[in-house]
Every structure is written in C-alpha cells, then in structure tokens.
Automatic annotation (TrEMBL):
SUPFAM superfamilies: ARM repeat (SSF48371), P-loop containing nucleoside triphosphate hydrolases (SSF52540)
HEAT repeats: 646-683
InterPro entries attached to this UniProt entry: ARM-like (IPR011989), ARM-type_fold (IPR016024), HEAT_type_2 (IPR021133), NACHT_NTPase (IPR007111), P-loop_NTPase (IPR027417), PBS_lyase_HEAT (IPR004155)
Domain NACHT: 86-212
Organism: Rotaria socialis
Source species, domain of life: Eukaryota
Listed Pfam families: HEAT_2, NACHT
Protein name according to UniProt: NACHT domain-containing protein
Amino acid sequence: MVVNEEKRFPIEQSYINLAIVDAKDQQEKEKKLMEQDQKMKEREKQKDFNLERQHGEIIGTYEEIYGHKTSIDVKNIFQQCKDQIKKVLILGRAGIGKSTFCQYVTYRWAKGELWSEYELLILIRLRKLTSSRYPPGKKYSPINLLEKEYFPCEDLSAEQIQHFKELCKNHQVLWILDGYDEFAQNIPEQLEDVFKHVREAQHNILTSRPYAIKSSYDVKLEITGFTNDNIVKYVEQFFDQITKEINNDSSETQKLLRLLKSNSSIWGVAHIPVNLELICSLWCNNYWTKTTVLTITVLYDNIIECQCRRYLTRQNIKHEHLRKQTVYDKCNTELQFLEYLAFKGMECDTIMLTPAIFIEAQNDTGCSDDDLAQILKMGILKSYDDKAIGTQNQTEKQHYFVHLSFQEHFAARHLQRILRSTDKVKAINFINNNKYNQRFHFVFVFASGLLAQSHYKSCIEPFWSAVQGEPIDLVGVKHIELTIACFDELINGTMFPQRPQLIKSITHWLEYCALHNAKALKTNIAQSFQQTNVLLKTTIIQNTFLQLLQSNQPVEKRNIYNFIAQLPIDEPTAKLKNKILDAMVDTDPYIRLNACEVLGNFGEHAATHDVLATLINAMRDKDSDVRREASAALAGLGGKAATNEVIAALINATSDEKYSIRQTACEALGELGEKAATNEVIAALINAKRDE
C-alpha cells in the first residue's frame, strides 16, 4: 500500500507488502465464523451459556480472518498453476490494495526482480476498456489493446507488431488485468472476443472483488490486507514522512500503535489498507487541530464517510465540497439499508446475514435491486457462499460485515434513527431490554458516541434516560461498566442533563475500588477505564485521585496506589504528577514500586527532567522490585527519555545482580529507539545476552 499519495516517493520505499493467501484457506476461516454464529444460537439454550465468552470467541474468529497469516510470496504465485497457460485470479474487497499491488509487481518486473521468464508485462486497467475509447464496428486484437493503452500517439512498425505476436505465441507476455468486477457487467460487445482470448490463451493475472465469476481459474488467491507486522511498518512509514514534512512529534507513532492494539475492533479493521490510511490521517488531523477527540465512534464514522465518498465517485457525483451530512443524505437509501441489516442481524443473534434478511431489509427500506447491487460494491459487506455449486447472484448468498464492529456501528446508527422517529418507544424498549447484554455493549457505546453529532443531539436525553432508568443492574458492576464506556464516547464538550449525575456515579465507584481490596471488582473497573480515551484525562477524575492520595492510612495508601497504577493516565495534571513524584521517597517500598509504574503510564509527555531524575535515582533503590519498575517506567516514557543519563543508568542496570532487573533494563534500552543505538549500548546488550 502506498503511503501519503499526495507526495511522490519511490514505490520500493513506500510500498508495504500485502498478505496474499490461498482463497480456500480464507474460505475455511469464514466457514469457522459461520460455525461460531451457529454455536452461539445453540449455546443460548444452555444454562451455562456465557455470552461474554462467546462474544470473545467471535471476535477471535474475526481476528483469525484479518490477523496473523502466512503470506504467499508474490514471486511464487504461479507455482500452483498446473496448466501450460498460467492464470491466477487474485481477489480482494474494496480498498484492500489490488490496484496498488498491480502497480508494484509491474514495477518490480521492470527492475528485473520478478518473473524474468516474461519478455513483456502489460498492465491493463479494465475500467478503461470502454466503447468511447474502443468504438464499435471494429474487431479488436491484443495488439490494439497494447497500442491504445501504451502508444496512443504513435503507430507501431510492422516489425514491432510481428515481434509482439511472436512473444504472445511463445507465451512470453504476462497480462495483468486489473478490476474485473468493474468491467464484467458492461463489457463492450466489440471487446468480448479479445478479452476472452487474453484471459484464456495468454498468461495472465486477473484481479477482482470477491464475487463468483465465470472463469476457468484453478488458482485463486486473496489479498486480505496487512499482516500484524505490516500495520506497524505502515504506521512507522506514514509518520516518518509526516515528521519530515511538518516536524511532527515522532511519539505519535507509538501512541497510535498503542491505540490500535488496545482495541480489538480497531485492530481488526486496521488490516484493511484504506482504513489504516484513514486512521493515520485522522490521528494527524486530531493532533494538529486539537479540536476533537479521536474516539472509536469518530474513527468508524469517518471510515463510513470515506466509503460513501468513494461510492459517490463511482456514481460520477461530485462530492469534494460537500459537508459530511450532505454526503450521508445523498447515500441515505444505502445507509438506511446497511443500518437496518446490521440491526436486524443483531436482533436475530446472527452474523451471517441470509437472503431472507436481505429481502426484509429491502422491503422495509425501499432499497431497489439496482441500489443493492451498488451497496454490495461499497466494501462494507462480504459475501460467503457455502454451496457446492456457487451462484452469480449476490442476493442468493449469505453476507457478513467485514468486521463485527462495522455491524455494531451500523446497528447503533439504526437505533438512533428510531430514537429520532415517532416510533422512539421501540428504541427505548430495546435499550431497556438489552443494555446489560454483552452482545449489544458496543452498539450502545457507538450510539452514545453518535450523540456528539448535531444530527443526533435530540436523542441525548431519551438515550441516557433509558440507560440510567429502570431496570437497573442490582449489583451495579454491569451498569457502571456500560456507563463508563458510553460516557467516555460523549464526554468531550457535550453537555446534557444527566452529565453531573454520571460523573458523580463514576467517581463514587473510583473511590470505592481505590479504598477497598476487592480484587475482582477492581480488575473489572480498571479494565473499563483502560478502554477509555478521554475520561482519565479530565480534571474531575484526576482531582478525585488527588483527594484519595491524601490518605495517611498505610493499607488505604497501598490500595490507592495499586489501583491507580493499573490505569493509563497519559495526560496527568501538574498536581497529580508532583504528588506521584513525592511518593517516590515514601518509606514503604510497595508505594515506591507502584509510583514508578504510574510514572511509566504517564507516557512521553511526562518525560521531563524531574521525572527522569527521580526514576534514575529509583534505579539505585535498595529494593530490587523498585529498581525493576523504575527501568520499566523509563521504557514507558519512550524516545524522549533517551538522555545520556538515562542510557547510562540502564546500561549499569544490565549488570544488576537480579536477573529480572537485567532483563527489564535490556527491554527498556530497546524501547528508547535510535538515540540509544550506541556502541556502548550494543555491547551491554550483547553481554547481557551471553549472561542468559
């Protein structure tokens, strides 16, 4: 995938390899997703059914589809071809990088790095094969395609034409035919024969979205996007270019990667190149303007806006100067269909959406067959055909959203649409009946995030009244977990009547968890806060911590510091930071240990001289656990902590008598980045490796 397309870079420097897998292997993973869907329906009837565990299994299956995979090296894609005519069909959904892949392999062939058995490689963008460029009334041949696409302003000589024919006859030409799905429905009659000849008699690679096509391709591969390592490399290259252009803070790379990895839904969709590029761009915009908080809802809303704009482009509708809401209005029929479909699937506890659900969605939203045909090309739904004999008709197949999180987001949009309608009682009843149902947790989180948009402002009061109203979880844990997650999506600058009461409730639970040694409860609440983007940055929450830290009771103090150490407070106020620094000289080593961990959680923005000096001093602490945590904390502070003093202290720690400290110091040196890549550091790491 090419990074930052507005600027030109050599493709070998900017291209990130995509994962190309055997299509049969991919189908096996999709089959597993359907089996998980069926298991869930069967288990719901059992007394020991655990919905949260089942939801985790489903997410895990999605991550198998989009996560770690063994790629096929591009140079080896012809190895499975058994016929004399080598033909490979490469599938991939919208935005996955099929066209960029075609450019890349063409470039590598031209440099002599790929497929040297071919004397000529011809890349044809099939969407350019139109009647306006190839007028009817003439019979076209492969040489006509070559002339029109590569030599439009000059005629080939007789010798050149004859040489080309000989190359074709000797199978020394490789054709790359990009974008069959855009071409298949409207192949000009005058081009049918030449296209058939190239596809059946010439060596070729054909790319298409994953629709069933009438072809004799025995070798089918699928571009499934980025691998986990590709994501890291892409983000690093993206921000490396941004840093050079605008002197941006390189720490944004690690911050974004932490966000991606901390949320399985975002991590899943980040394997799709067009989505990851958009996420990186949004992160940059958010960093520069400081006008918004990059919540999960903001991410997904912008991805959907991007898909809608691409959809309008294919419809030849100009959209560059249209506001987001105007774009949504122009795609209203399509969005309504996807929203209804997602919500109906959630209601029916199904991920695989059957043709019957499609028909119901069409009838209720007024979506025509022509509209549906276009919706299936948007890259949001993926077809799955488990029949022995495939079908060309997409509406006869089962479909699923490219990630469960997309289904949850569209379902949330449908919920808010109902809440804005005259039938809002239906939405309120749905919230009341399902607010503690784990399957709908992220539907409600997305629904809350949507309330920040002016389009949904009228829904704030009824939504929160339903969430906070009866029935209420008797123990209260499920309720506060839902409250924290939903409130975090909406907290930034949005005022509504229930806001003060929500903050009071959240701070009450914080106080209880910090003061009591209820391990299971603290773990659950801490996990809820670990998933937040904004809440821990607010002054009122940090002031709550400050009030708690005033305690002089030894047991209470231990509980408080232990709880705060579990929370990723990456933007501390000056008062909170200073209070933690004071704790670094506490007489209780357990307090000092947890204070180190809190400082590490503060992140690069807290890598100030006083913090670094305090942690360096802690590396000489008489308690070995404190020394270990001080090293780990320096690693958490990232590249900004890579001062000469810190590096020297960590090098010294690689010789500590405790193995755990030596190991942590080595890991910390690795986290400090290029500044720590000195000969002295390398020598210390080598010595530590020998010590193992």
